[in-house]
Amino acid sequence: MSNGITPDEQNNNPSEIPCPLCNEMVRTGLVRCWNCGSFMREDIAEAYRKMQENPAPMIFSPLPEETEHSEEQEFPSTTATMTGYSNSDDDDFELDQSIAVTEYEASDDDFQLNDDTDSSQDQQTTIPLAREESEVEARQHADSDVESEAPASEDKAKQIDKAPAEDHSVATGGDVLFNVALEEEKEEKKRRKGGGRRRRRRGGKVEGGIVVYCPNGHRIRVREEYRGAAGKCPACNVMYLVPQTVPSEQEAEQTATADAQTEAESSEGFNAGAYTHWLEGIKLHAIDPTKLKLKPNSLEKTFTNVDLAISPEKMLVLVVAKAGLLGSGSKDKLEKARAEIAAHLREEKDEAEIPAVSVQTVTAEQISKLRVVFPTMYDHESVFAGVPVFGKGRIAIALPKQQDSKENQYLTFSLSEYRKLTEALSEFFGIDQLGQDSGIPLTDQMQQVTCHYSEESFEVLDNENLEFYEADPEIELTLAGRQCQGCQLIVSEDSRKKERIGGKAGKAIAKTKCPKCNEKFGNISLYQLVKTEVPAEAVAE
Q1: % of the chain beyond a pLDDT of 90
Q2: Helices (H) and strands (E) in the chain, counts
Q3: pLDDT tens digit string along 404-458?
Q4: What is the DSSP string of 212-267?
Q5: Beta strand extents in 100-191 (DSSP E only)
Q6: How far apart are CA 22 and CA 459, in angstroms?
Q7: Chain-wide mean pLDDT for the chain?
Q8: Whole-angstrom Cα distance, residue 507 to residue 500?
Q9: Beta carbons of 499 and 453 less than 8 angstroms apart
Q10: Exposed e or buried b per residue across 246-263, where buried means at least 16 C-beta atoms within 10 angstroms of its C-beta
């Protein structure tokens, strides 16, 4: 059936209008869009924003006036009930044996009095409960009113004489309830170890004891018996822990001395049997050649720390302990594992049962074929094309490839570690030429130079091998002088300071003009090895 409305009339009087924000059709009359929730009319949106910015103030109605007996009518419970009820919060919350305070002296209660309660340390009585105080005061106030009123006639006097008969029973009942409440309070005190909130403080100061600090920095003195317990700061109510018993200073010194002696004995008595050469903390790199990136330092951090145990027959590559969060195990853990491995080798037990994470054996025949892969005499002969992928100043040796493995293994050394390795290989296997043609300084190469100003001669390291010394953490260098990059003029560090060449610290020496060739001095530094003084006793031994 037709409703008599043409399509043109529907368009002129639509029942839906588009949302001004999302253009969704919304039925006319709606305040908000059903799709995006925005207001359909700008005036309503503006009124809503004003209402949110200026909310209506809160109105508080006055409390009804309390009558004289309103509290008794509303809470008809006895004093004993109120006593137990007031202490209900204390049972839910118990600390470890409360703490006594001096600077703040912690008491045996762990719960402190409210800030508005004034009580001294000499006060030894229990602070009465709020319900008990109101009842006693009310009774005393009633008695004082009766005594103050003078009887106007004999009839009133008789009525007053009769009144105490009724008041006596009421008063007696009140005293009974009051006594019951006190007994229950005493029982509560015996049952609870921590005590209530309104107990008295412990009198007297703590003698001796220890001083601890809460997380907010308050100083608290605690008795020795509470070591290991938890307490509550009386100043800020923050929980703190009392440390366990620690040894005295004398015991600590004795313990440190004993540990030092034990460590010295263990280092001197480290005996691994036939494995007389032991290198600690050598880096082992396992590299997939297909994934190798020829960039400086690209493999510097991809390594496993291993120990090398070398005997006249073989060399063991030992992973002593599992790596920790920082890449290696703790020092104590490593030392303990090394001692166990050394004892196992000293007793010549089965190598398959060595107490290490992993063990790789390099035989004497394989040792004779070891070769240095970095650095090399010529870059095109190197697998790494002369790029220091293991880090500047590191020396790399290729290990025999393991079966069923796609990765190549390389041991990398600092200069001092490499010299220890070559010493062991020379002693056991007669290998003296390992890396000799690679430019590695097996011995310190020194050259004699003369200062231009003081004309004094002094020795410096050869700069061609300086990167190996700079990268070795066990070698300490000291700046001895500077060299002009143009005319090779030598100036000692002492003379440079006297002549003020490059400033006081020499930072501007690269741009300073040479006194001989009048060109820029450059930044060529000359170094010496720091000589360590050997004790006379060690020399005698």
Answers
A1: 26
A2: 14, 18
A3: 888 999 999 999 999 999 999 999 999 887 887 888 988 898 999 999 889 999 9
A4: EE-TT--EEEE-GGGTT-EEE-TTT--EEEPPPP---HHHHHHHHHHHHHHHHHHH
A5: none
A6: 84
A7: 74
A8: 11
A9: yes
A10: eeeeeeeeeeeeeeeeee
Give the amino acid at 519. Answer: E
CA distance 215 to 225: 21
Q: Which helix (H) or strand (E) holds 364?
A: helix 364-367
Least confident of 12-26, 108-122, 178-192, 206-220: 108-122
Per DSSP, 101 falls in state B
C-alpha to C-alpha distance for 174 and 119, rounded to whole angstroms? 28
Q: Tokens in use for 122? A: 């000499």
In this prediction, residue 280 carries a pLDDT of 92
Round to whole Å and give the CA distance between 182 and 177: 9
- Per-residue tokens: 518: 């009048």
Q: Which two tokens stand for residue 535?
A: 């004790």
Whole-number Å distance between alpha carbons of 139 and 424: 102
Task: Report the C-alpha dihedral over residues 194, 198, 203, 206, rounded to 10 degrees.
Answer: 40
Instruction: Output the six-digit token pair for 515.
Output: 């006194």
CA-CA-CA-CA torsion sign (339, 340, 342, 347): positive
At residue 514, the 3 state secondary structure works out as coil
Q: Cβ distance 435 to 415 under 8 Å?
A: no
Name which residue leads in pLDDT, 534 or 179.
Answer: 179
Parallel, antiparallel, or unpaired for β 25-27 and 304-310? unpaired
- Residue with structure tokens 């000293």? 346
Question: Residue 37 corresponds to which tokens in the numbers above?
Answer: 């929730």
The model scores a pTM over 0.70: no
For residues 187 and 65, the answer to whether their CB atoms sit within 8 Å is no
SS3 string, 21-85, reads: CCCCEEECCCCECCCCCCECCHHHHHHHHHHHHCCCCCCCCCCCCCCCCHHHHHCCCCHHHHHHH
Query: Which DSSP letter does residue 351 get?
Result: G
- At CA 391, angle to CA 388 and CA 396, rounded to 5? 70
d(CA 390, CA 303): 10
CA distance 388 to 375: 8
Residue (of 155, 209, 159, 174) closest to 80 by Cα position: 174
- The DSSP line for 395-423 is EEEEPPPPTT---EEEEEE-HHHHHHHHH
Helix axes 154-191, 130-148, angle to 10 degrees: 160
Phi-psi region of 323 (alpha: psi -120 to 50; beta: other; left: phi over 0): beta
Separation CA 339–CA 278 (nearest Å): 12
168: helix, coil or strand?
helix
Which residues, other chains included, contact 116 with Cβ-Cβ below 8 Å and sequence gap of 6+? none
Virtual torsion, Cα 376, 378, 383, 389, nearest 10 deg: 60
Q: Which CATH class is domain 270-438?
A: mainly beta
User: Cβ neighbours of residue 132 under 8 Å, at least 6 residues apart?
Assistant: 79, 83, 178, 181
Planar angle of CA 155, 139, 70, nearest 5 degrees: 100
